[in-house]
Design goal:
Largest sheet: 9 strands, mixed
GO molecular function, one term: methyltransferase activity
Number of domains: 1
Structural class: alpha/beta
Low-confidence stretches: 1-11, 15-35
Helix content: 25-40%
Mean pLDDT: 82
Order of helices and strands: EHHEEHEEHEHHEHHEEH
GO biological process, one term: methylation
CATH topology: Rossmann fold
Oligomer: single chain
Pfam family, one: Methyltransf_23
Number of helices: 9
Distance between the termini: 48 Å
InterPro entries: Malonyl-ACP_OMT (IPR050602), SAM-dependent_MTases_sf (IPR029063)
Protein name: NADH dehydrogenase [ubiquinone] 1 alpha subcomplex assembly factor 5
Length: 349
């Protein structure tokens, strides 16, 4: 497990659980890309937010979550037993993935971000050629068929037009190229979301969305399939971080540049609602920390990991329907069937 910095222990405790499953969804017509996209996020505000966070004196304090997710994504790149000549890290932030990419996996890496400060400090292992590029994830522009690998860590969930972004990434990849990314999923911060909603209902008699909308696991497969990717692998990680109270949680979200300031609507949260939400959060989800003996609240971060390949004639193809030799009804007899097949082959030899 990637070690977290000592600064984390004084602010919050982190618990990691890992849930993996394979999911390749059917094509969903309503998610097809069209010429009319809804701008949920204000990209100018998001850019300023990330630049401000990158210039903060205590920016290292808020790296603990993204560092862990970046390490896991880099480990997935290493799992592919291939050396990529040219790769791009889209939305590199402070190099959460790039600093773990091995020269055994990548020859040359293009690190891209909207913040020049992030590009300046993003580290890359010695032995990898580096190119730095100012790039907004909303407008991904590379030469067609130029990249062998595209990675992105916790940047694409702020993009307004994901179908367009996926199509652009597919276009810039070479045949049999790989796209790997991590985004926050729909269950992220569900505790904070429900606490804020209950607090607003109590104090104001209505509610407003104060948590940014996240992509659902089932939709990612449809979007990648519609874009043209093949051999999809989608799974989720669940990371639970314990904070002293809701105020430390919201402060850290701001430091990570993951607060809701980029939503395209007024989201003022007055003090009464904040204190009510803190009390509700503690009542519904609070627990005692066995180490310190104090009260803590958990915050869940669901991370969707995706992997897709650009089509190539030599890629494995699914067998024709009905070509299977073993029925699922006989799955309990699998050992006997294997022994029988092996015996037949031995007799023929």
């Amino acid at each position: 497990m990637y070690p977290l910095g000592s600064f984390v222990r004084c602010r919050c405790s982190v618990h990691f659980t890992h849930v993996r499953f394979l999911s390749v969804t059917m094509i969903n017509a309503k998610l097809r890309n069209d010429s009319h996209s809804i701008n949920i996020f204000d990209r100018n505000t998001k850019t300023l937010q990330r630049q401000r966070a990158a210039l903060a004196d205590d920016v290292n304090v808020y790296d603990y979550l993204k560092d862990e997710i970046g390490f896991r994504l880099a480990d997935r790149v290493f799992d592919i037993k291939r050396k990529f000549k040219l790769a791009a890290d889209i939305g590199c932030n402070r190099g959460y993935v790039s600093k773990h990419i091995s020269p055994d996996s990548v020859d040359e890496l293009i690190v891209c971000d909207v913040s020049q400060r992030n590009l300046d400090v993003a580290p890359v292992m010695e032995g990898i050629k580096v190119k730095k590029l100012l790039l907004d994830e909303e407008n991904i522009e590379f030469k067609s068929n130029s990249l062998d690998l595209v990675i992105s860590c916790l940047s694409l969930h702020w993009v307004n037009d994901l179908p367009k972004a996926f199509s652009k990434i597919l276009d810039c990849l070479k045949e049999d190229g790989v796209f790997m990314a991590a985004v926050f999923g729909g269950d992220t911060l569900y505790e904070l979301r429900s606490s804020l909603q209950l607090a607003e209902l109590e104090r104001k008699g209505g509610l407003s969305p104060h948590i940014s909308p996240f992509t659902e696991v089932r939709d990612i497969g449809s979007l990648l399939t519609n874009a043209g990717f093949t051999m999809l692998t989608i799974d989720t990680d669940e990371i639970v971080v314990n904070y002293p109270s809701v105020f430390e949680l919201m402060w850290d979200l701001k430091g990570m540049a993951e607060s809701n300031a980029a939503l395209n609507r007024s989201l003022h949260l007055n003090r009464d609602v904040q204190f009510a939400a803190a009390a509700i959060y503690q009542q519904l989800y609070g627990k005692n920390d066995p180490e310190s003996g104090g009260a803590t609240i958990p915050a869940t971060f669901q991370v969707i990991n995706m992997l897709g390949w650009k089509p190539h004639p030599k890629q494995p193809k699914p067998l024709q329907r009905g070509s299977g030799e073993v029925s699922l009804r006989d799955i309990n007899k699998l050992d006997e069937i294997i022994k029988e097949i092996k015996t037949i082959k031995d007799d023929k030899s």
